[in-house]
Design brief:
The chain has 69 residues and is of the alpha+beta class. Helix content is 32%, strand content 25%. It contains two helices and three strands. It has a three-stranded antiparallel β-sheet with strand order 1-3-2. The longest helix is centred in the first third of the chain and has 16 residues.
Length: 69
Amino acid sequence: KRRGIARALLKEYLARIAATNAADRVLLIAHEELRHLYESSGFLWIGPSTVHHGNRPWFEMRWDVPTLE
């Protein structure tokens, strides 16, 4: 924890998606305590998700692949 490994892996994953034009955006659901990790990697906080799994709420987040202009 707190060594930057998760952030480094996430940034590498997003870089590969951007490099291969595999998608226009990445969507995910997460618990609120992971919000900072994803936002610091460029994800936007959308809000509560309609997904119900377990007893804790899920939240939607989105990362738009940067365009080369």
